[in-house]
Design a protein that fits this description.
It is a single chain. This protein is α+β, with helices and mostly antiparallel strands. The chain has one domain (2-149). It is built from two helices and ten strands. A hairpin with a 5-residue loop joins β1 (2-9) and β2. The longest helix has 13 residues, at 26-38. The structure holds zinc ion (2 copies). One zinc ion binds at residues 67, 69-70, 72, 113, 115-116, 118.
């Protein structure tokens, strides 16, 4: 089950919809992202990890990332790479997603800003202490609606 947020700028009203977590189609998304990662579409580092650990897996759940440089807000899959604790383990059933208790983190995926290429930081919670700044006017963007999606 995922969660949807609408961020609205207090000053100019600029709004942004963000969907975090995953929906019912997680298996489908994971299969697609795994294929892309193996083809190198998400960087050489991830492609090399799949070559080293063919039975590894990635985290395809959506997270929110924020660029402190240019204020870009992106919602994209985490893509952290995990390998099975038991090296003999067969590749995960991609339809249902792997049981993450049986995996350990190998490498966190570096999220670079699509605009300025600076590293982006993950927004864990949308709180007032760490507000997202509006890319249009520099105002504070607050989360207005929360909705479940699946
Ligand atoms: Zn604004
Ligand atoms: Zn940026």
């Amino acid at each position: 089950m995922g969660m949807g947020y609408t961020l609205v700028c207090e000053k100019c009203g600029h709004s942004r919809n963000l969907f975090v977590g995953c929906g019912m189609m997680y298996g489908e998304v994971l299969r697609e992202k795994t294929q892309e990662a193996k083809e190198g579409l998400h960087g050489e580092a991830l492609k090399a990890l799949f070559e080293t650990y063919p039975n590894g897996c990635i985290d395809a759940m959506n997270n929110i990332y924020y660029c402190g440089e240019c204020r870009a807000v992106e919602c994209e899959p985490g893509l952290d790479f995990y390998k099975p604790i038991d090296p003999e383990k067969a590749p995960a059933d991609e339809w249902f997603g792997p049981d993450m208790d049986q995996y350990e983190l190998v490498e966190e995926h570096a999220h670079l800003c699509p605009k300025c290429r600076k590293p982006m930081k993950q927004v864990i919670r949308l709180t007032d202490e760490e507000p997202v700044v509006c890319p249009e006017c520099g105002g504070i963007m607050r989360s207005r609606h929360r909705l479940m999606w699946d």
